[in-house]
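Project channel, design review

CF: Before we commit to the Microbulbifer harenosus constructs, I'd like one complete example in the thread so the newer folks can see what an input/output pair looks like. Taking Small-conductance mechanosensitive channel.
RD: sounds good, go ahead.
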Amino acid sequence: MDGLKAQLEELWPLVMGVGLNVLWALLALLVTWIAAKIVARGVNRLSERGIDETLIPVLETLAVWGTYVVGGLVVLDIFGANTTSLVALLGAAGLAVGLALKDTLACIAAGFVLLGLRPFRVGETIQFGSIIGTVRKIGLFTTELDTPDGLRISAPNDKVWGETLTNFTRNSSRRIEIIASIAYGDDIETGMNVLRTLVANDSRILADPEPTYAVRALADSSVNLHLRAWAKTDEYWDVYWDLMKKLKPALEAEGLTIPFPQRELHIVDTAQKKLVKDAQGEVSG
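CF: and here is what came back for Small-conductance mechanosensitive channel:
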């Protein structure tokens, strides 16, 4: 018993030391978790100070993970780990992992390029390749979009940056193009006046740039009249659909017709033609 008591007395300082380290480590983890929450909220409030909403998710991710890394180093330091050597080891490991995950790092690099150059922002409608949608989030790895038919797409950033980007909503105005086909027997100027009347009756069409009217083409079955007008980007489709809806009744009200494609077919009876030719040959003989 005396020997056991002596061993316990020798171990007690060690147990107390380890216990205190564990308590300090748990406290450090709790503080780190609370600090990460506070940092995340602080970053989210940056949008109220004029910071672009596009940058908020990435800044939040970097700030939170940075807080966790600092907290982890503090915990390791509590247990007496050589953090300097550990940082060097993590650097070497990071290099090896980076070589193995070069495609993932390409996505991260493309994400920073997108955030830096800002060819699009959250809420804008873009197209790259065959994909079109409204941007919902730009992350370190992927860009999330909602397609016009309600699908959510997560596209790797390197794929987004590697394609030609079309931004439909960056500019404040957008040009509308309408083609009106009339028959060759119709009066061209009457058709032009129909287009001018449609434009004059829609207050959403901008006066500057001024609308233009022209004969687009003398097609196979019709004369194609061309209207180019400008509208605000957020009203583009409403104006376009209204013009298309009103175009046919307006043309018909002026006695103009929208012709169908036409072809003339000449049918020749080759057998009868041969008999006529033979008969003509006998007469001449």
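RD: helpful, thanks. The chain has three domains: 10-100, 119-167, 173-253.
CF: The domain at 173-253 is CATH 3.30.70.100 (Alpha-Beta Plaits).
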